[in-house]
Amino acid sequence: MRLEQAKVLSHTAAGTGYRVLELRAPTIAADARPGQFVHAQVPNLQGSLLRRPFSLYAAEGSTLRILYKVVGAGTRALRDAQPGQTISILGPLGNGFPTKQPPAVPVLVAGGYGVAPLAFLAKRLPSTGVVFIGGASADHILCADDFRALGWDVRLATDDGSLGTPGLVTAAIDAWAASRPDLGKIAFFACGPDGMLKAVGQRAVALGVKAWLSMDRHMGCGAGVCLACVQRVRINGKEQWLRVCKEGPVFEAREVVWS
């Protein structure tokens, strides 16, 4: 974990309400792994002392990229960051996805901007597989071309049916799974809303395969001190609370205890 003054290199629109922020942060970029995040001090955010967590969309050379959605005061303030400006970031934080997978077909499942860490993961896994990307509509389907360029089989789903399979992304997963005889040889990696993560985890447990789930919780310190982002888990038959920012954000599906 390092504290670094990152320089804004570019800041561009990436679809309806989404943006990509590229930062020069050589120290953090060198250590970053898919599924980890940074805690950023958003500039020009009056009256707020807390940093904001952002998943890593990419880490290449000395640069980091963050894909985010403008949803509240913090991201509205971040939207105004300009090239040449510096942003204080702390990272890389948390435990990410495993990238040295056993012989299994990786199946990535993304909901909305939860696709960002999976796009990073796709570049680091030793083999390609299939990726399912879900969104409310075609305007909310992100990064599909990133995966196609890497040779992944891309399957899409939208709630309104404007692109890909109509309905939830799990409908696309179920349609795909129905035609596969070797489902015991896959491993899931998922990031998105809790309902989607729970559904993916349930399918993995039923199949007897692993599912690595990236949990999203409100965070205060981002370093495991404030205990604001705990998740109940069961390990070796014993229930306990773990910190999403420290022991997570990625947990294996069989560990997660859903409320």
Condensed summary:
The protein is of the alpha/beta class and 259 residues long. It is built from 6 helices and 16 strands. It folds into 2 domains: 2-93, Translation factors (Elongation Factor Tu (Ef-tu), domain 3), CATH 2.40.30.10; 105-255, Rossmann fold.
CATH architecture of the largest domain: 3-Layer(aba) Sandwich
Radius of gyration: 18 Å
> Given the C-alpha coordinates, what overall shape results?
globular
Q: Averaging pLDDT over every residue, what do you get? A: 94
Sequence of strands across the biggest β-sheet: 4-3-7-1-2-6-5
Order of helices and strands: EEHEEEEHEEHEHEEHEHEEEE
Largest sheet: 7 strands, antiparallel
Q: Give me the count of strands.
A: 16
Helical content class: 10-25%
Helix/strand-derived category reads: alpha/beta
CATH superfamily caption of the largest domain: Nucleotide-binding domain of ferredoxin-NADP reductase (FNR) module
Domain count: the total is 2
Highest-level CATH class of the largest domain: Alpha Beta
Spatial gap, N to C terminus: 31 Å
Named CATH topology of the largest domain: Rossmann fold
- Low-confidence blocks of residues: none
